[in-house]
Specification:
The complex is a heterodimer of chains A (116) and B (113). By secondary structure, chain A is an all-beta fold. Chain A has strands at residues 4-7, 10-14, 19-25, 32-38, 45-51, 56-59, 62-67, 72-77, 86-92, 105-106, 110-115. In chain A, strands 2, 4, 5, 9, 10 and 11 form a six-stranded mixed β-sheet that branches. In chain B, strands 2, 4, 5, 6, 9, 10 and 11 form a seven-stranded mixed β-sheet that branches. In chain B, strands 1-3-8-7 form a four-stranded antiparallel β-sheet, with no helix packed on it. In chain B, strand 4 (31-37) and strand 5 (44-50) form a beta hairpin. Chain B is globular. Classes of the chains: A mainly beta (116), B mainly beta (113). The A-B interface holds A 1, 4, 6, 32, 34, 36, 42-46, 49, 89, 91, 93, 95-96, 100-109 and B 31, 33, 35, 40-45, 48, 50, 55-59, 90, 94, 97-100, 102, 104-107.
């Protein structure tokens, strides 16, 4: 089955700096890659996603890049703010194919701390 | 518009007992998936139900079972609880049997003592 590795496990940046979180996946058939933000005691919330036919996607301060050949994708947060502090999870799925269970395989998470 | 609601929010059970967790999807969503999130780890897929049929099952023992009702709400049942079942159980709903458009509930935190 699919396996997703995520690095780093913790990341501390100063306010205004950029943060990069990297993930690799094992199943070359995976075709959808979402990123979730989970604040302490709260539910995971989708912040951005990318499909396998796209190399990069941006949404204000957040961007995701995908390298299908290398089977890795990254989350980039620019101009970080204290409210960006949370645990971030990457995920992968091949569940966009008809007939397969739509399940996400998550990475182990990155705890991002933005300091003043 | 109500989001995905899960009940109860917290639960403490003793080893060997069974537990039933409940999930109500967003109105109009027909797919419900269950995930287990152990402290410090990413969520792990347990089940997906779509139109009241099981569409997928993760690598969990038969002690775990689920079902989806005609109103698309769902129950997750765990029998013979073990200490290792202590986790946050998340329910996610989506309109179709696709992961895009997933909305997670706030989860049920189960503690097994």
């Amino acid at each position: 089955g699919e396996n997703v590795e995520q690095h780093p496990s913790t990341l501390s940046v100063q306010e205004g700096d950029s943060a990069v979180i990297k993930c690799t996946y094992s199943d070359s058939a995976s075709n959808y890659f979402p990123w979730y933000k989970q604040e302490l005691g709260k539910r995971p919330q989708l912040i951005i996603d990318i499909r396998s036919n796209v190399g990069e996607k941006k949404d204000q301060r957040i961007a995701v890049t995908l390298n299908k050949t290398a089977k890795h994708f990254s989350l980039h947060i620019t101009e970080t703010q204290p409210e960006d502090s949370a645990v971030y999870f990457c995920a992968a799925t091949l569940g966009e194919n008809t007939g397969t269970a739509s399940k996400l395989t998550f990475g182990t998470g990155t705890r991002l701390q933005v300091t003043l | 518009d109500a989001g995905v609601t899960q009940s109860p929010t917290h639960l403490i059970k003793t080893r060997g007992q069974h537990v039933t967790l409940r999930c109500s999807p967003i109105s109009g969503h027909k797919s419900v998936s269950w995930y287990q999130q152990v402290l410090g780890q990413g969520p792990q897929f347990i089940f997906q139900y779509y139109e009241k049929e099981e569409r997928g099952r993760g690598n969990f023992p038969d002690r775990f079972s689920a079902r989806q009702f005609p109103n698309y709400s769902s129950e997750l049942n765990v029998n013979a609880l073990l200490l290792g079942d202590s986790a946050l159980y998340l329910c996610a709903s989506s309109l179709a049997d696709r992961v895009n458009g997933y909305t997670f509930g706030s989860g049920t935190r189960l503690t097994v003592v």
